[in-house]
Design a protein that fits this description.
Layout (H helix, E strand, L loop, with lengths): L20 H23 L12 H5 L1 H7 L5
Length: 73
């Protein structure tokens, strides 16, 4: 037996679901910090601002640096 789904009409307009800011804010902060850390490692992890010694991180993100327009050599 097939079930019928009520379609919205002019008498019953569709109401968008609301998402409270408190539910989305922690995720926005988390992903914002994550993106800043990734941007640092791709764009600035070398030389005087280096967190890790050596060129390991630089070699891992080398192609991404060129793709995003960061100079490295």
């Amino acid at each position: 037996m097939a079930q019928t789904v009520a379609q919205p009409t002019a008498a019953t307009p569709a109401v968008p679901a609301t998402l409270p800011l408190g539910a989305i804010a922690p995720w926005a902060v988390f992903f914002g910090v994550l993106m800043l850390v990734l941007l640092y490692f791709v764009g600035a992890e070398q030389g005087a601002t280096s967190v890790f010694s050596g060129t390991g991180v630089h070699e891992w993100v080398h192609d991404a640096r060129h793709l995003l327009g960061f100079p490295c050599h």
